[in-house]
Amino acid sequence: MDETSEQKALTTVDVVRLRGRESTTAADCAVVEEPLEIRLHGRSFAVIMRTPGADRELALGFLLSEQVIASADDIGVIEHCTDPSADHPENIVNATLVDASSLDRVFADRRQVTTNSSCGLCGRRTIESLRADAAPIAASWTIAPADLAPLTDRLRAAQRVFDETGGLHAAGLFTADGTIVDVAEDVGRHNAVDKVVGRAMMRDALPLADVLLMVSGRSSFEIVQKAFLAGVPIVASVSAPSSLAIELARDAGITLIGFVRGDGCNVYTHPARLRTSPASR
After folding, report:
1. Would the pLDDT of 122 be above 70?
2. What is the CATH number of the domain that holds 110?
3. What's residue 4's pLDDT?
């Protein structure tokens, strides 16, 4: 990765580091996550979440995987948006095909919603549609940092298929006292979140204001968005959140926690739900 790409890939965020009963505020680095809209001849084809950098290459690889093109020879021009009226043109790549006669077939064959194991929002048609229109979450219950680490162990212990394959992510819903409400596994962590939220919906249990969501791996924009729409006030993970996940969590009233290990964690938004004194609900 060259220096320019590395600069685009990182951003500075404020974080509250909790280690036992000690709390410190510091600046930290987060990986940047932003939507990239891929257009064909100026028409929106797909939106995918990515870390900025090598956008044209990413678009080419995506178009190849979607069988829009068979080789680079099928592309006439591929460039970032040059429309001065466009919002965030740096997040838009427009490609033109050498044979434009196939465009109608390409769009006719395009599924309305395309998902895969690494991105749950690929089929969203415009960048603007990625942001949810809902009121911020106002739940006020709290949990101690030391009570988070056991949840990662319980989540791992509930991954039966992972024991056989080693290849699945997990999402779990837990109450403040550590009780497992539900756990789901999937090759995509966002799919696992959909499963636990979907089951809660079938139980008529939304909004999930009294539980926290723990996910394996990192927290992305899509996971925070799913938690937001389900009314989950706390999202925690064993790894890092992305910049866009942090931004959405801040706006959505969600406490976003990363690097849950031992009696420590990093709190990126709304730290008031993490307490170092006796329980209060």
Report:
1. no
2. 3.10.20.10
3. 61
What SS3 state is found at 55? helix
- Helix intervals (H) in 69-213: 103-109, 149-157, 160-165, 189-202
Q: Which tokens is 66 given?
A: 């979607």
Looking at the structure, do residues 175 and 264 belong to the same domain, yes or no? yes
Q: pLDDT tens digits for 17-49?
A: 998 888 999 998 888 888 889 999 999 998 888
Q: Are 176 and 273 in contact (CB under 8 A)?
A: no
| Domain region containing 117 | 34-130
Task: Kindly state the percentage of the chain with pLDDT values over 90.
Answer: 39
* Measured distance CA(38)–CA(17) in Å, rounded: 38
Tell me what the pLDDT averaged over the chain comes to. Answer: 83
Catalytic: which of 81, 119, 122, 265? 119
Residue 185 and residue 189: Cα distance in Å, rounded?
A: 8
* 191-219 per-position pLDDT tens digit: 789 889 988 988 889 999 999 999 988 89
119 given a catalytic annotation: yes
Domain total for the chain? 2
Q: Cα(270)–Cα(273) distance, rounded to whole angstroms? A: 7
Residues 6+ apart with CB under 8 A from 188: 115, 116, 117, 118, 120, 169
Clarify whether residues 97 and 57 are in a common domain.
Answer: yes
Of 76, 97, 130, which residue constitutes the final position of a domain?
130
Is residue 239 one of the residues assigned to a domain? yes
- Same domain (yes/no): 80, 146: no
Q: Which two tokens stand for residue 105?
A: 């077939």
